[in-house]
Amino acid sequence: MCGAPAANPVMGWRLFLSWLPRLWRFQMGISIPVMENKMISVDVNTHIYRPLQQVFTFVATPENDFQWQYETLVSTQVSKGEIGVGTLFHTVGHFMGRRIETIYEVTEFDPHKRYGFKSHSGPVESHTLYTFETTDGGTKINLSTTTHPRDLFTMNHSMVEKKFKKQQKENLAILKNILEAHRIVSP
């Protein structure tokens, strides 16, 4: 057994049965309603009582993602060298019960100011940008992300959007707690 999808008869039947109603509707000339896939945009921020350099370095290190991003299981830099524009990293995570593997490419890297990346592969198209500002006694971090779930989630769009926004807010709260408590684990 090689474990390939074609070698699994149960998955083959499930795939066939999932397409059967669509095939029947097509043959009968019945239009198939298409779920509207909209972009999901999130803009959230928080204030962290730590120096800007410490916050930026922690956030811009992909290997730290699993510590503060609830949905991330592992994240590793794929390309060699220092992190900067063009750096690639591979992330394995989950969202609403689905496992998601994605390659991201760093699109913006201005030390202690901006860190952005976009999905290069995977089932979800996204672009994320973190900006950092020094404030009285710490750092203000702004997160702006735009995601297009494509056909990954066939359920209600507003439910997916609500869950995604909630998760981003929770991620920043976890980041704040980790950095302010000095519970940083270096990779």
Write a structural description.
With 187 residues, the chain is an alpha+beta fold. The protein folds into two domains: 1-33; 34-180, Alpha-D-Glucose-1,6-Bisphosphate, Chain A, domain 4 (2-Layer Sandwich). Helix content is 29%, strand content 34%. The protein is built from four helices and seven strands. Strands 1-7-6-5-4-3-2 form a seven-stranded antiparallel β-sheet. A hairpin with a 2-residue loop joins strand 6 (125-135) and strand 7. The longest helix is centred in the C-terminal third of the chain and has 24 residues, at 157-180. It is globular. The protein starts with 8 loop residues before the first helix and ends in a 7-residue tail after the last helix. The model is unreliable at 1-5, 22-26 and 28-35 (pLDDT under 50).
Average pLDDT reading: 80
Sheet-strand content, in percent, reads 25-35%
CATH domain topology of the largest domain: Alpha-D-Glucose-1,6-Bisphosphate, Chain A, domain 4
CATH architecture heading of the largest domain:
2-Layer Sandwich
Reading off the top of the CATH hierarchy, the class of the largest domain is best stated as: Alpha Beta
Major β-sheet profile: 7 strands, antiparallel
Helix content: 25-40%
Q: Which sequence of SSEs, written as H and E, runs from N to C?
A: HEHHEEEEEEH
Within the largest sheet, what's the order of strands?
1-7-6-5-4-3-2
Number of strands: 7
Helical/strand content category: alpha+beta
CATH homologous superfamily grouping of the largest domain:
START domain
Tally of helical runs: 4
